[in-house]
Amino acid sequence: MANRLENETSPYLLQHKDNPVDWFPWGDEAFETAKRLDKPVLLSVGYSACHWCHVMAHESFEDPTTAQQMNQGFVNIKVDREERPDVDNIYMQAVQALTGRGGWPMTVFLLPDGVPFYGGTYFPPADYGGMPAFSRVLTAVGDAYKTRRDELQSTGKQLTEHIAGMTRLQPGDQLLSATILDQAAESILAEHDPESGGFGPAPKFPQPMTLDFLMRYHQRSKRDSVLEAVETTLHGMAFGGMYDHLGGGFHRYSTDAMWLVPHFEKMLYDNAQLARVYLDAFKLTDNPFYLQVAGETLDYVLRDMTGPEGGFYSSQDADSEGEEGKFYMWTPNEFRELLGEDAEIIGRYYRLSEDEHLDDPHILHVEVSVTDFAEEHGLDPDDFGLKLRTARDKLLAARTARVHPGRDDKAVTSWNALMLRALAEAALTLDNEHYRRAAVRNADFLLDNLRQPQGVGGGESEAGTSIFRSNRLLRSWKDGSARNKGYLEDYALLIDGLIAVYEATFEPRYLSEAIGLADAMIDLFWDESAQAFFDTGRDHEALITRPRHLFDNAMPSGTSVATGVLLRLALLTGNTDYERRATAGLRALAPMLSQSGTSFGHLLCALDFYVSRPQELAVVWPAPSSAHPEDSSLSAHPEVHPEPGRRALEGRGHDLAKSLIDAVRAVYAPRLLLVGAPEGSGADLTPLLADRPTRDGQPTAYLCERFVCQAPTSDPGELAKQLEAANS
What we know:
Layout: H1 11-14, E1 23-25, H2 28-37, E2 41-46, H3 51-61, H4 64-73, E3 75-80, H5 85-99, E4 106-110, E5 116-120, H6 134-147, H7 149-166, H8 178-189, H9 208-221, H10 224-239, E6 253-254, E7 262-263, E8 266-267, H11 268-285, H12 288-304, E9 315-316, E10 319-320, E11 323-324, H13 332-339, H14 343-349, H15 370-376, H16 381-400, E12 407-408, E13 411-412, H17 413-430, H18 433-449, E14 474-478, E15 481-485, H19 488-505, H20 508-525, E16 526-527, E17 532-533, H21 558-573, H22 576-593, H23 601-611, E18 615-621, H24 655-665, E19 672-678, E20 700-705, E21 708-709, H25 716-726
Parallel strand pairs: 1-3, 2-3, 18-19
Antiparallel strand pairs: 2-4, 4-5, 6-7, 8-9, 9-12, 10-11, 13-14, 14-15, 16-17, 18-20, 20-21
């Protein structure tokens, strides 16, 4: 018989709906029941792609004896951390304070008012490796709740004060300068592994935000050692088992220092960020290998992780048929059956053929590039490249017939927004219509489906207005239903993605939506007395503390992204209040930035933007004639989007304007703001388009840097020179 989770939409919660545990979803009913029955709360937090979450579920939550002990002694709550990052963040801080470590599955014991007093991560079914059996933990916690309640309440009070203290920072007055970037870069390079790449010992995580900052810093400092650290890491990840050499995309992390053995789940947020990093690395170095990895990663998401409505799915599991990584591994014998006489050389390339045990599964990985491998083995690189592509097609087709890992098919707003930006930037860089359409489709999906209908559950600001009522984002969507109020990261990352879509299409709607969401974000999440953003809106349910996550981990923090987008919008709109709020956060965190670079990769990129001279490029073209009103944007065949009111994506009649934009595409210019419109329009949205006439009736580009402008030009070659000089 299904439990209370049967009416949820989260794939993770639905995985537990048939457990014998009497699970509650997070909500008032669970805590009211705990108070009424005077029972402690057992809070279990995980996510769909989490391998050890599945292990603990099978060992304990599916076991009738363990479930009976849980039901008798506790009110049990199951939470999907991807739907409720606020709950996860608060109680993860409690577990880390209690044990010195964290992770998932997370198991936390709470008083009936939600205050934590004990917790951990995975607990085995029997005592193992210094970890107590889960049943032993349940018995001890239950006894303590009955006999030592005062002690638990005291512990809970201390933990709550500790968690609240983690969010309190004094407003800062430190001078924001490039010196902070210098110090942060040194702290990052001190952790770099010069042999295999990455930062710190095993397990190794990709850290795309750190790589993003280092590429910017290399452009600023011209230090070869900085770029070397980036490239060593990029090659290590893409050559190793971390990367899916057949289907594209990256696994979650490497269990070893050499990027060989991954933890096999695939997360949307990893692949979105890594696609952007490899795309930027291509623009910085002109190495086509990085472009290949970026393209294969984006293509993987569009092939395997995209829903029919245009949303992107959250993750793929590590396991299939009960074994982690089984879907991705191969035996030499399987290679022989599929590839025939080519199996030996292809297996050698993927490091299979030298093994004596032909039925042992192997993780595909490579040690050198295709060209280097061909030369080492006396092969023509073009011939071997063709042979390899043919073999990959056969292997991928055979793998597709296997039992696939489970997939979490909910769409999370912030994660989708990360992929939205990656696709939009790839569309602009490559002038790729496939990526552009996917980006526009996703932007429209998010704006149409992940926003609360106007007048439903809204709220008013302290001034009595309803700034956010029509811009109240929701967190996640599945099967036509959106739920849970969006968090700071959802707003900030969607704003970020919409700006990128605007730059890729020059459709004013997307910049207008970004500005509207920014105003709603400030209204909901900014605390003027603290001079800071919080992760939950002022209309959010009351928790034991208002969470404020400061560090950039697997994803950038909401504070980091909000800082970055407000700095960019300040220049795009001329609104100095955006900059005031952004710099307040930077000043408060500045002392930590210089010492813990790998914890603030995204925020360091925002600081780099602030202390630099960002470039503002405005492209204008002749206003459309009445005969061809669709020429008002650089997007357009009407048949691309048949829906009423939709502009299309591929315009006509603006070849020279497109040539000007071509000069921008492959330039590594991470501090560039790009705007465009027909002559005489767009100034109501951005002052960067004010007083920007065409020259001699020809499309014209205006490049400026902090109040200093280059001569306007209609010559793509001249614009390329200006951009090169600005980014050298």
